Amino acid sequence: MYQYIDEYLNFLAIEKGLSLNTLEAYSRDLNRYWEFMDGRGIKSIKDITSDNVISYLGYVRNCGLTANSSNRALAAIRGFYKYLLREDILDESPVANIELAKVWMRLPDTLSKDEMNLLLEQPDAKTPLGMRDRAMLELMYATGIRVSELISLTINSINWHVGYLIVIGKGSKERIVPIGKFAIDYMTRYINEGRLKLLKGKRTNFFFVNRSGNGLTRQGFWKIVKKYATKSGLHKKIHPHTFRHSFATHLLEGGADLRSVQVMLGHSDISTTQIYTHVTRERLKDIHKKCHPRG
Known about the structure:
By secondary structure, the protein is mostly helical. A hairpin with a 4-residue loop joins β1 and β2 (164-168). The model has no long low-confidence stretch (mean pLDDT 87). It folds into 2 domains: 2-86, Tyrosine recombinase, N-terminal domain (DNA polymerase, domain 1, Orthogonal Bundle), CATH 1.10.150; 113-291, hpI Integrase, Chain A (Orthogonal Bundle), CATH 1.10.443. It is globular. It contains 13 helices and 3 strands. The relative contact order is 0.10.
């Protein structure tokens, strides 16, 4: 079984181009799945029935997994069985008729435009680190890119003349995203004044670097966001993805069409982008309630 899992993960990496984070999540889900089956005396993948799979899904829910996490676990198992059918290792899949758990929509955390402006003003842009931080925050809000996409940006990722990024997203898919004047201005100042001081003679192709002249990590950027969120005094949950959520929400509020937002976010399915239309509707309801005499 573990050999089949390894072969499937190699297939996903080579044929599908999935990211390391996604592969690690699939590996955890599939190894946990087989450990559950092995613990119940099942020694061959061919002996697993639909009832066994349903028992496993009940087990992971009892372990405290959310409906989203349970569905991801089922998606990993489904993809695995699809691969086994394709390779003629199995003749049928025990998950074919098992439905996804109902997922209640949780609206993403966003900031208003005024709150976002306050947060963006927190770095001290007179210092090398402050220049870098302001450029990063401005870029995150201007483009809606993911943290993994931000820290992997290189010097060659940016077209300064036209003003856009070439982003390598999930599944190694490339997309082009406009940057905007404010982010361009702060990025230009950072690369002309701050970056060289942080590099201290080192050479790297990464656009954003830490105080040691090396590339940033996801954890490092999370700490930066947490620092400025605290400094801003905003009493809201603010995390790196807040910039992405706010980017999409403010675009839609400004009249952008859903398809354009989908392309800029790099969503493969427009249904993923549609959650932001619910955010804007909720905000409209709040405005109506506060401002209308009969609200």
